[in-house]
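Our collaborator T.R. sent over the components below with a one-line note: 'Predict the complex.' Nothing else. No constraints on interfaces, no templates requested, no preferences about which chain binds where. So this is a plain run: every listed entity goes in together, and whatever single assembly comes back becomes the starting point for the next discussion.
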Amino acid sequence: EFTQEEIQLLQYVMESYNKNRLPQDLASKLVDNLSTDDNFVFLTTMATSHVQILVEFTKKIPGFQTLDHEDQIALLKGSAVEAMFLRSAELFNKKLLDGHTDVLEGRIRNSGISHEYINPMFSFYKSLGELKMTEEEYALLTAVVILTPDRQYIKDKESVEKLQESFLHILEKLCKQHHPNNPQHFARLLGRLTELRTFSHHHTDMVMSWRVS
Amino acid sequence: SSGSNIGLEAIIRKALMGKYDE
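Returned assembly:
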């Protein structure tokens, strides 16, 4: 059973999550034929867009703006890559972007980024897809990722932890409600967070090698 | 990596200040 406060919290998060999606003109740009150079610009623009959307979403997470300003930046810096992977997983698994996700996948695969990075990334998206997460679960898991108290340079870990716990609690309840026959669902979602951390570490190497090439 | 992190931080700071708000 959800409390009135939890229902309201969930509503807020969903409203913000739905409002802050990748712009549709990205989808129309996807069908354009791009040269290798344009492809590079396109993918970096898309990454920037991802971060801007993430910040807009985060600003509206109830309680986030009450945190210390520098802690807010540290949280966003620490989680941006992980949150981007989560959004991308949702994008690919739910075939968003007007159904042009196949074109996008091709574009990423032909971007010049080494396949040693690309393949595990798409396997991760696929494994997340197998969990059949609802939109609400994606949104809450993203909030949980952003509100991770043990990021670098966080001064007031306690306040972050408190906030994260309230979302973890709602996510756990939602998992039970959405997947009554799978009591392990919540634990599996949390397990994916560990994988996300690994990706975040590899992402720096990936971007570096891409730049060099 | 520090270069890309500065880029990331700049985007975050600008967005937090509402530069990309509707």
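Summary for T.R.: The radius of gyration of chain B is 9 Å.
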